Amino acid sequence: MSDPTPADLLTTPLDAWHRANGARMVAFAGYAMPVQYAPPPELAARCRGGVLAEHLQCRSAAALFDVSHMGQAWLTGRGAAAALERLVPGDIAGLAPGQQRYTLLTNGSGGIIDDLMVANIEAGRLFLVVNASRKHDDFAHIAAALPAGVQLEPLADRALLALQGPAAAAAMARLCPPSEGLTFLGVAALPVAGIDCLVSRSGYTGEDGFEISVPAHRAVALADALLHQHEVAPAGLGARDSLRLEAGLCLYGADIDETTTPVEAGLSWTIGKRRRQDWGFPGAATIRVQMESGPARRRVGLRPEGRAPARAGAPILDAAGAEAGCVTSGLFSPSLNAPIAMGYVQAALAKSGTPLAVQVRGTALPAATARLPFVPHRYVA
Amino acid sequence: MPATPASEIRYSRDHEWVRLDGDIATIGISDHAQEALGDLVFVELPAIDRTLEAGEACAVVESVKAASDVFAPLAGKVVETNQSAVDDPAVVNADAEGEGWLFRMELDDPEAVEALMDAAAYASFLEEEGA
User: Fold this and answer.
1) Whole-number mean pLDDT of chain A?
2) Based on CB atoms within 10 Å of each CB, which residue in A164, A257, A300, B94 is the most buried?
3) What is the pLDDT of residue A80?
4) Are B65 and A242 within 8 A, CB to CB?
């Protein structure tokens, strides 16, 4: 399909590239984005396209995602790390050069404004990647909190590609030999296919892989070079969502938002050791109480019996049939060939294996809480 | 007026198809619908003997990401369901208007099928819908 892009949607630098590769475009966070592909014959031999095949391609070989809708920014100046620490519970000052970390922007009541990746590129230069749907709010929020001498510079002229899967490293090594030297969450400025990029060994699928920030005008050349590798096929947002849910990773706006705290969401591990002594981040009072006394509810994985997926919004019931929580993400897992979900339940019911039920179209389907991730991570140490 | 031949396929505005054989209608989702939904992973069909009004939601087809209702295009009683579509929903993607049929109904009024679109009318309807 090659639907025209409605005039009010933004496009990424790969818009024409997606269409040439048979993408079905949908509106997401204000952008026209590929949800899945029906690739031309030479690529279809590698991966026939569609959410299932693209998902399995990423688990078995390598998949290339355009995530240029996400927000990228420099945070620069001598006090950049300290300034950011006033907004997040992560240990940013302790981040070694060449290292990246997952952290959260929290609000005064301990809710999550956004989740983001922060990389220490060099002294006084941090690189941020935030969610597309939140970038304008995030950047305004961060900019408003900066002291003199620290600047936030949103990078609207850069694209972001994600190459994910067990064969990502082999494909990448041909175009960028030094990428082999990166370990999980390592970051470096490296040429990829001769194009100056910022490469991090990270992703949102649970697989080994890379996120590659590239100047917008070189994005098509980079995508073509990556797609030229025999292991690689394009994958859309559909597979991205099913992959991240199998990996137990949160989707902002679904599994976490301003009403959920890091403790409820099972993200207390993002709160640095030093930050648990200084408590100098927004919402620390609430978060501290929840860490010490336990939260009232917790994010859990759920495995419904049978094949019917329980979708976001489905009520979760306890063994007596009383409402005990709500599904926040749910779909059919291509890897497990079974439905999986995440949601929040009363803390007493959060232990894995607890028998519960999910209500789907008026019927209570048996389900049990399950350990996350549903599919083991395969990051490179 | 001659009766509708058993082979003639008709379509609803909700993208179901109907093929009539006597007063038994075979019903499924159109090839366009399966294409739009993408890979199907779950199919839920109505119980045998369930009485359906025209337009009543009676089955569900789900892709990895989303669930879609299937509506009874005509009034009647469910007499058969396609267990192979439940066991392997991919058959609906592979052959939506053939092997991927969903259920059969004994129609209250077989002539009501005339009110549905023929293949040419459905093709124009899809063009208008896409425009």
Assistant:
1) 96
2) A164
3) 98
4) yes
Tell whether B2 is covered by a domain.
no
Instruction: Report the SS3 class of residue A172.
Output: helix
- B1-27: pLDDT as tens digits: 444 444 589 999 999 999 999 989 999
A276 vs B93: CA distance, rounded Å: 53
- Of the candidates B42, B64, B66, the beta carbon closest to that of A308 is on B42
What are the angstrom distances between the C-alpha of A212 and each of A33, A68, A162? 18, 10, 6
The segments of chain B whose pLDDT lies below 50 read 1-6
What share of chain A has pLDDT > 90, as a percent?
97
Are B67 and A238 within 8 A, CB to CB? no
Of A53, A311, A332, the CB nearest to B41: A332
CA distance linking residue B112 with residue B108, whole number of Å:
9
Q: What are the structural domains, with CATH classification, of chain A?
A: 15-68+157-246 (3.30.1360.120), 296-370 (2.40.30.110)
Number of folded domains that form chain B: 1
Interchain pair B62, A308: CB under 8 A: yes
Please name which of A193, A235, A311, A316 lies closest in space to residue A67, comparing C-alpha atoms. Answer: A235
Q: Which residue range is the domain that position B40 belongs to?
A: 9-130
Average pLDDT, chain B: 93
- The CATH number assigned to the domain holding B66 equals 2.40.50.100
Section A228-233 average pLDDT: 98
**Predicted complex ipTM exceeds 0.90:** no
Residue B88 lies in a domain: yes
